[in-house]
Amino acid sequence: MIGRVLRVTAVVVAFAAAIDPPLSITARGRSRVAIITQDAAPDDILLTAMRIADMLRPEFDVVAGADAAADAVVAVGTEYFGSTSERQRAYTVTAAPRAGEPDLRIAVVHAPRTVPPGTLIHLDVDVDGVNAAGTTSTLTVRAGDVTVGRATHAWTSARERWRAAVDVTPLDTPPWRLRVDVSPAAAERALTDNRADTMVDVGDPLRVLVYEGRPSWASTFVRRALERDPRFTVASVSQPSRGVDVTAGEIDRAKASGGLRQIALDAFQLVVVGGLDRVGRDDAAALMRFLRAREGAVALVPDSRADLRAVGDLLPVPPANELLLEQPARLTDGVGLPPLEASETLTFAVAPGVRVLAANAAGEPAVVVAPVGAGRLLLSGALDAWRYRANDTAAFDRFWQAAFAGLAALSPPAVDVAVDPAVVAPGADAEVRVRIRGDAATVSAALGSNPIRLWPDAEPGAFRGSFVAPAAIGTAGIAVTADSTIGVGRFIVAAGARDARAASAPLSLLAASHGGIDVAPGDLSSLVRAIRRDIAAPRVRVTRRPMRSVWWMIPFAACLGGEWWLRRRRGLR
Q1: Has domain 27-96+506-540 been given CATH number 3.40.47.10?
Q2: How buried is residue 533: exposed, middle or buried, by Cβ count under 10 Å (0-12/13-18/19+)?
Q3: pTM strictly above 0.85
Q4: Shortest CA distance to 414 belongs to which of 322, 559, 293?
Q5: Which of 147, 214, 415, 499 could hold 275 in an S-S bridge, CB 3.0 to 4.6 Å?
Q6: Closest CA to 309 of 298, 292, 321
Q7: Is residue 245 within 8 Å of 256, Cβ to Cβ?
Q8: What whole-number distance in Å separates Cα of residue 404 and Cα of residue 410?
Q9: In 10 A of CB 397, how many CB atoms?
Q10: For domain 206-409, which CATH number applies: 3.30.450.40, 3.90.1150.10, 3.40.50.12780, 3.40.50.880?
């Protein structure tokens, strides 16, 4: 009887193993926890993250880095960073510098968004230093792997801001990604804010219109100086007699006969006007709109005092005094421009907001720039400077080229598109800001084939939108169309990108806004207890195949062996 039971049991085990029946049950699953750290985190923060992972791994599935499928996020760092979904609970471990520890931070990088071709890039970098007195820091600017700029500073007080001025030579092809690093102070632990990225693009040639109601020697030679400079694209309209128009450059000749009111001035950044006695009310109204609405720059280049008086009632021209000399005198000022020479000059009274570009020996301004609305109006009192244009190695040309380059560069494009940050990590959130100069009925934006919704901002003509950076590393651009005018804002997608910023919100804000807690690196046990309490293990349906266990071999072998032993005891085979 016993032998039969053992035999039947062995057969049942073998039969069950052969058919391998599945069994569905409700079991306790494992929640998913993501642990994230700041980019380029120091070793102690990375070690803290590893300790947290080891403590959680027996009960949770732990992943490194951001994970949208995670039930909870643990952020380890020194300041607010990262983003989580609304459903994710967040916990933070703040490894802030201890009292008395040194800390350096790149707060702001002042860089031009664009520069003309062949121009040095000037950077002003603000570095905040805390408890770094008595140490020296080195700031380096790199383009790729090449160091293109360097500056040093000795810290003298407990709290101090250092502004480093660096001129950088562009390398490779634009746009240029420039990485700014400041060497850490001794014993500094928070190193993520010691570096920052910025982007500088090459600008289009500065578009200038030279308009002459009649031929003018002064404006003619200014135009020739600009035409010899590759930074400018010059278009010109001259009217030698009534009904006759001489045009050059990219300009609609059919509209040129109608004066400035018929020309599309919004396409230009600077308008140089000569033959001022032929400027009519319609022309003056077009120039005032260009100054105020377009925020452009206008340069008035008279041939005489009477020439300037002719537009005194139409444009905001200040009173001028005339000075006639037997010999030419140098007109210089401390702004770094080459000197002009002139024997016939007009001088202007200095008013608030007026910038002097050239003055005579008595300090009386002869070339000034005055604000008009959001634009700038240049008045030239160097009436016959063109006569001495060959003196001092063509200082005449160099003066106007430099003055007009700076003036036109301050005039924003008709459709101004800025991306913030300009160097962004793949998949990170970014913002696009658009400013329309002039009137536009429709405005649209797109990143490749993906449209971006723009919302009106507080300022008239300003719009704002947000987007997610593409995953592909490299240069991308957002195209904004305002009626028929298109503006493009380029940006760089790069792994590990970081933009400069002043002291940000504390990291604990992330936990407070997502239902978690913030702890110090020495209190990780409280963090683990809170996660165990808050993150319940999910109940899941699982399929088990019990017959696949190797432990079934023991009863199977025992039954067969026992049955064989009983048969031998009875003398059976």
Answers
A1: no
A2: exposed
A3: no
A4: 293
A5: 214
A6: 321
A7: yes
A8: 10
A9: 19
A10: 3.40.50.880
